[in-house]
C-alpha cells in the first residue's frame, strides 16, 4: 500500500510517500522559518498562504522522485490536528480533494501520534510499550504508550512548551527565531554553571513548567543591565548555557521519573527540541544509569515532516474515509485517540 502523507499543521510543509513493508519512497520538506523569522514567531495567516503555494508542486516533485503517478497511490493521509486551523485546512482540503478525485481513502492523522510513531520508521525500531517525550514548539508531553492508540499522558507542561521557552529566551538574548538551535550554538561557548537558574517543579510529580525559568532569565538580564542591546558576549553565552542546562535538567529528570513511574525501560524522544545535543547526551547517560534505552529518530524525523504522517496513516488506515468531511482540530488531546482496530 502506497500512502501519500501531507503535513501542514504549523510552519513546515511536509510531503512523503510511504509504502508498506518497503519504507519511505520519497519525501520533501519546506520550512517557512525565514518567512516568519522577522516576526519572531509563526504568523498563522502567512503560514496558511505559503502552504497553499508550496503543497501542490511539492506533491508533484515527491511523486516524480519516487517515479510514481497519482494513480499509483492507494491512500492519502493528512495532519488533521492539533495545529493552526488555517494551516490544517490547507492540507486537509487538498488531501480530501485528491483522494476524492482518485477514488481512494483519505486518512486523518493526529500530529502528536505521528511524532510518537516516527521512531518506528528507523532501522532497529523500539517495540511498544514505551514512554515518549514529545518536545516541540507547541507541546511538551510525557506519554505512556502501551499500544498504538493507547496513550496515557503522565506529565505535561503547565505553561510554556519547551521549544517555546527556547524561542522566548532566544528573543530576550536578541537571537533569531527559531531559538532552540541559536541558543544551543551560543551555549557551546558558555559556562552552564555560571547562573543557577531554577529547575521548576523539581520533586513535584511529572508535570513540567518553563515560564518561571524564562522569567528567571529575564530578571538576570535586567539585573545585569543587559536587557537592552546586550553587548557583553561572555554573559550572553553563559546565560544561554545556564538556561539550556536548566531546561535540559528538567526534561531529563521528568523523563526518568516517567520511566520509573510506569515501569518502562524504553524512552523515545520526538519533536524539534529532541534535536538538542545536550538533551540527547544527558538522556543517554541518565537512561544508562537505570538500565533503560533511549531512542531518537534522525533529526529530519524529529521535526515536523510528511513521512511520519504517511506512516501514522498506515496504522490508522481503518479510520479512512472515502470522501466527505475535512477534519481540522486545532486542539485535540492525544489521549482522546482510540486504540487501532
Ligand atoms: O517539532 P518542531 O519542528 O515544530 C513544532 O513545534 O511542531 O519544533 C520546533 C521547536 C522550536 O521551538 C525550536 O526552537 C525547537 O523546536 N528546537 C530546538 C532545537 N532545534 C529546534 N530546541 C532546542 N535545541 C535545539 N537544537
Ligand atoms: Zn510537530
Description:
The chain is of the alpha/beta class and 341 residues long. It folds into two domains: 2-117 and 301-336, Nucleotidyltransferase, domain 5 (2-Layer Sandwich); 128-296, 2-Layer Sandwich (Nucleotidyltransferase, domain 5), CATH 3.30.420. The protein is built from eleven helices and ten strands. The protein has a five-stranded mixed β-sheet with strand order 3-2-1-4-5, with helices on both faces. A hairpin with a 2-residue loop joins strand 7 and strand 8. The longest helix has 30 residues, at 233-262. The chain is globular and about 65 Å long. The two termini are 18 Å apart. The chain binds 5'-O-[(R)-(carboxyoxy)(hydroxy)phosphoryl]adenosine and zinc ion.
The secondary structure category is alpha/beta
The name of the CATH superfamily of the largest domain reads: ATPase, nucleotide binding domain
The total count of helices amounts to 11
Overall outline? globular
Order of helices and strands: EEEHHEHEHEEEHHHHEHEHH
CATH class of the largest domain: Alpha Beta
> Could you estimate the helical fraction of the residues in percent?
40-55%
Could you write a compact summary of the structure shown?
With about 350 residues, this protein is of the alpha/beta class. It has 11 helices and 10 strands.
List the helices and strands and how they pair.
Blueprint lengths: L1 E6 L4 E8 L3 E9 L1 H5 L6 H22 L9 E7 L3 H18 L3 E5 H8 L11 E6 L4 E8 L2 E7 L5 H11 L6 H9 L23 H13 L9 H30 L3 E5 L6 H13 L3 E3 L3 H4 L3 H10 L26
Parallel strand pairs: 1-4, 4-5, 6-9, 9-10
Antiparallel strand pairs: 1-2, 2-3, 6-7, 7-8
The structure holds 5'-O-[(R)-(carboxyoxy)(hydroxy)phosphoryl]adenosine (KG4) and zinc ion.
Amino acid at each position: 500500500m502506497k500512502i501519500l502523507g501531507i503535513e501542514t499543521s504549523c510552519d513546515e510543509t511536509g510531503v512523503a510517500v510511504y509504502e508498506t513493508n518497503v519504507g519511505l519512497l520519497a519525501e520533501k520538506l519546506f520550512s517557512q522559518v525565514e518567512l516568519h523569522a522577522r516576526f519572531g514567531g509563526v504568523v498563522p495567516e502567512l503560514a496558511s498562504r505559503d502552504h497553499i503555494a508550496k503543497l501542490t508542486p511539492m506533491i508533484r516533485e515527491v511523486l516524480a522522485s519516487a517515479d510514481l503517478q497519482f494513480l499509483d497511490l492507494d491512500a492519502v493521509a493528512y495532519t488533521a490536528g492539533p495545529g493552526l486551523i488555517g494551516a490544517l485546512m490547507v492540507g486537509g482540503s487538498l488531501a480530501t480533494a485528491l483522494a476524492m478525485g482518485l477514488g481512494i481513502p483519505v486518512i486523518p492523522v493526529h500530529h502528536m501520534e505521528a511524532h510518537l510513531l516516527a521512531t518506528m520508521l528507523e532501522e532497529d525500531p523500539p517495540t511498544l510499550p514505551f514512554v515518549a517525550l514529545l518536545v516541540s514548539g507547541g507541546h511538551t508531553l510525557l506519554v505512556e504508550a502501551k499500544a498504538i492508540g493507547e496513550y496515557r499522558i503522565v506529565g505535561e507542561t503547565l505553561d510554556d512548551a519547551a521549544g517555546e521557552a527556547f524561542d522566548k529566551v532566544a528573543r530576550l538574548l536578541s537571537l533569531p527565531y527559531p531559538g532552540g538551535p541559536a541558543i544551543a550554538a551560543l551555549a557551546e561557548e558558555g559556562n552552564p554553571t555560571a547562573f543557577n537558574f531554577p529547575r521548576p517543579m523539581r520533586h513535584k510529580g511529572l508535570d513540567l513548567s518553563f515560564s518561571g525559568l524564562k522569567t528567571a532569565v529575564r530578571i538576570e538580564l535586567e539585573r545585569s543591565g543587559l536587557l537592552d542591546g546586550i553587548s557583553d558576549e561572555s554573559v550572553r553565552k553563559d546565560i544561554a548555557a545556564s538556561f539550556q542546562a536548566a531546561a535540559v535538567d528538567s526534561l531529563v529528570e521528568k523523563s526518568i521519573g516517567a520511566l520509573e513511574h510506569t515501569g518502562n525501560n524504553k524512552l523515545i524522544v520526538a519533536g524539534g527540541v529532541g534535536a538538542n545535543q545536550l538533551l540527547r547526551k544527558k538522556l543517554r547517560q541518565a537512561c544508562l544509569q537505570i538500565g533503560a534505552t533511549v531512542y531518537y529518530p534522525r533529526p529530519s524525523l524529529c521535526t515536523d515532516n510528511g513521512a511520519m504522517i504517511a506512516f501514522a496513516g498506515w496504522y490508522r488506515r481503518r479510520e479512512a474515509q472515502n470522501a466527505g468531511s475535512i477534519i481540522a482540530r486545532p486542539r485535540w488531546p492525544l489521549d482522546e485517540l482510540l486504540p487501532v482496530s
